[in-house]
Design brief:
Keywords: Signal. The protein has a single domain, classed as Trefoil (Trefoil (Acidic Fibroblast Growth Factor, subunit A)). 9% of the residues lie in helices and 37% in strands. It has 2 helices and 14 strands; from the N terminus they run αβββββββββββββαβ. Strand 6 and strand 7 form a beta hairpin.
């Protein structure tokens, strides 16, 4: 019995998450946490700008329903990001020319939406096999979400974090990248 519990704990840290997959209503492109967690609509958590519209900071947020007929720059598209395999960048769909960049200080990490550049902390590797998004400058570091969900008006959100891949529960670090 003890071996089974240990095996299950290890599988959660390194295996593929096994809970419900989100039913994302957003139009592609988007990057969504593979596990719905506790998003109440079942929409999942998409990478998102902090607050409505364009912002300098990023988080995850309930994926949003499509906005038919709205221009690409419409603020409701702020949960739409894509992974560019050539540049290795997470690129904003509505805010063209802006990319996700990790901001790292001792004991803390944040994510910003900055002009796309060759900065090393704008380079990520998406590994389809284990569904992780890893910092290219240190492939042992994964993009993940915090364990606690916070209300965000009619939606919910979770902070984005960086952490050692082997120490993060699979359900908090596995992403599905959906292209157009």
């Amino acid at each position: 019995m003890r071996l089974a519990i240990i095996s299950a704990a290890l599988l959660g840290a390194t295996g593929i998450a096994g809970a419900d997959a989100p039913k994302v209503p957003s139009e592609a492109p988007y990057i969504v946490l593979s596990d719905n967690q506790d998003e109440p609509n079942g929409y999942g958590f998409c990478i998102d700008t902090y607050g409505p519209g364009r912002s300098d900071l990023l988080q995850t947020h309930s994926c949003k329903p499509p906005s038919e007929g709205e221009p690409r720059s419409y603020e409701g598209h702020d949960t739409r990001f894509e992974y560019n395999t050539t540049t290795m960048q997470v690129v904003s769909y509505p805010f063209e020319g802006f990319c996700m960049q990790a901001l790292v200080a001792t004991g803390k990490s944040e994510f910003a939406l900055l002009e796309c550049s060759d900065h090393s902390r704008q380079k990520f590797i998406y590994n389809e096999a284990d569904q992780t998004l890893r910092l290219n400058e240190d492939k042992a570091i994964c993009v993940a979400v915090a364990a606690e969900t916070v209300p965000a008006g009619p939606w919910v959100k979770r902070p984005l974090t960086l952490g050692t891949c082997d120490e993060i529960d699979a359900s908090l670090k596995q992403w599905k990248v959906v292209s157009q």
